[in-house]
Amino acid sequence: MWAQRVVLIRVLRVNSEPRLVLNRKTLNMGGGMGATMSQQVKLLTEIARGIKDLNKRINDLVEMQAKILESRQSATPKALKQEEPLDALTLLELPDHLRRTAMALHQLGRATAETVSDMTGNSRSIESAYLNQLQRQGYIHKERGKMDGENPKKVYFHV
Amino acid sequence: MQVITIHSYKGGTGKTNLSLNLAVSAANRAKRVALLELDLESPAIYNTFKNTRGKWMNDFLEKDDVKLKDILTDVSMTAKTKGALEVGLANPEMSAVRKSIGGDRKEQLKGLKRLMSIREELKGYDYVFFDTSPGVTYASINAVLTADRIILVAKSDRFDIEGTDRLIAEFYEGLEKKTGLVVNRVLTPQMTQAVTEKIKIPLLASIPCYCEVPIAGSHTIFVNDKPGHPYSQNIEELLERTLAF
Ligand SMILES: Nc1ncnc2c1ncn2[C@@H]1O[C@H](COP(=O)(O)OP(=O)(O)O)[C@@H](O)[C@H]1O
Ligand SMILES: [Mg+2]
Q1: What is the pTM assigned to this prediction?
Q2: Residue A61 is assigned to a structural domain of this protein
Q3: How far apart are CA B237 and CA B230, in angstroms?
Q4: ipTM higher than 0.85?
Q5: Residue A107 and residue B108: Cβ atoms within 8 Å?
Q6: What is the pLDDT of residues A66-81, one digit of tens each?
Q7: Which of B108, B116, B141 is facing A92, going by the closest CB pair?
Q8: Which residue pairs from A95-101 have beta carbons closer than 8 angstroms and sit at least 24 positions apart in sequence?
Q9: A100 at the B interface (CB within 8 A)?
Q10: CATH code (residue A131)
């Protein structure tokens, strides 16, 4: 468990200046009985910075992947699955990230990726990738704005 | 507007009693309240309030042209509430019950969409309470998905604790909704402890078993009939906590 975490942190250090490396030695230094208060505070601050950094990197990765997905799907011809109702039981079976998006769309009724992202807190490009994924699976529909007050240049999703 | 769903793993935990009394108690605070019965499998609230509209929750869920305001019955007079209380009743006729369970996925999706639409239609209301059927039925999941807050009611028997625990792990955790626990019909303090040791969501209330509750029956509203009774105080406190957590 610990070994795995250390490896993960090491891998993510590639391409950046050296940062906190969590291993038994640093942990013992800060967490052991003999550590002074200031050593502990220093270590905790470093850990917090490390986690923040990790978070940012993971977000960057997810966003990169979302962009790749988006560009890929606009390049390939649409091979849509047949329409699948996004009913409550189906919703429960979706993976967490898609369920969050689908639940937001259910509440909004009809919305752009941007509006959904305001609700979920994800970035627009991630939501766009998730919504397109749901649409390819036949759960939701997608069309250019055509209702009153909608922008015809924008894409709207609905259940 | 806040949508509050009352749900449980097992039947007979006291959901209908709690929904009714919470709704009345909220309306007594001069709020505008709707109570919608989504236990389409075993309707009960028609015993307390007559349906003067001739239309039911079932009609609202099935038909796009039926608005909620076509089916809501104003019961403020009967319930003697300070604010407005309206109820949407489930149809107790067997044919309606059968139909509600039999719908395919497409029809159930429609029910969910209809339920989501009440946020728009009931915009001016303060609180909307959903009474549900126990366990994972379409109507109750739809009610849970539409809710802002969920009150999960459990009794302190071993099957109920096990089931509620699984319901949370396999169903609620993925929904990321505010969910609190009520332990109802408690006989000893140890019973509540047994539940909270296993079920790790915020405890909103531990309500003792009072014989006066079933004796009062479904024709009266407990909090109005016996405002000084400890059950009525439990309801008041539960309402406070539910709105605050
Ligand atoms: N705190 C309580 N003490 C004693 N009996 C209760 C209490 N709460 C509910 N009951 C009784 O339990 C039975 C089931 O209650 P009900 O509200 O119909 O449950 P549900 O809707 O969950 O099936 C009813 O007879 C009711 O009077
Ligand atoms: Mg009931």
Answers
A1: 0.81
A2: yes
A3: 10
A4: no
A5: no
A6: 777 666 655 554 556 6
A7: B141
A8: A96/B174, A97/A130, A98/A130, A98/A133, A98/A134, A99/B174, A99/B175, A100/B176, A101/A127, A101/A130, A101/A131, A101/A134
A9: yes
A10: 1.10.10.10
